[in-house]
Amino acid sequence: MPITPVKTLVAEAKEQIETLPQTEVETLLASGEIVLIDIRDIRELKRDGRIPGAIHAPRGMLEFWIDPESPYHKPDFATDKKLVLFCASAWRSALAVKNLQDIGVENIAEMADGFSAWKSRGAAVETD
User: What is the CATH number of the domain that holds 99?
Assistant: First the structure.
C-alpha cells in the first residue's frame, strides 16, 4: 500500500485545526494573549531569522516539552494562553497542531502561511 502523500496529510490536518491570519497573530502577540511557538529547525532560525517574542521549540520535542508529566516539560507550555505554532510554510505546524490536539492539547492553533510569508511581507524579524 502506498504512503499517504504529505500534501494530503497537511490538507486533512488543516480541515481540523484553527489557523490564525498573520495580522491577528501580530496583534495577539503584542497584547500578550498568545504564546507564539516557532517549530522550525535551529538551522532555519540562524539562517532566516526569528519572530521577536516567539519561543523556539523544535518539532521533535513538542510532545515532550508540552507534557507536564515529561522529564523534559518546559514551563512556557504550562499556560492558559493559546499556543500558536508556526514553521516555514505552515505544513509542519499544521501536522504538529493536529497531533497535539489528538493527544488532548486544547487552545492551540497555527499561524497562516508560516515564517516565509511573515518575512516576505516585511513583518518584524530578528537575526543573529
Answer: 3.40.250.10
| Domain contains 127 | no
Q: Which amino acid is at 10?
A: V
Q: At what angle do helices 6-14 and 92-102 cross, to 10 degrees?
A: 60
Q: What share of the chain is helix, strand, coil (3-state, %, to 5)?
A: 40, 15, 40
- Tens digit of each residue's pLDDT (9 = 90 or more) over 8-41: 999 999 999 999 999 999 999 999 999 999 999 9
Rounded Cα gap, residues 14 and 56, in angstroms = 22
**Cα–Cα distance measured from residue 34 to residue 45, given in angstroms and rounded to the nearest whole number:** 20
Cα–Cα distance for residue pair 64/124, rounded to 1 Å: 29
Tens of pLDDT, residue by residue over 48-66, are 999 999 999 999 999 999 9
- Residue type at 8? T
Find the domain containing 30 and state its range.
Answer: 6-120
Q: Please tell me the distance from the alpha carbon of residue 62 to that of residue 39, in angstroms, as a whole number.
A: 8
* Region class of 9: left (phi > 0), else alpha (psi between -120 and 50), else beta: alpha
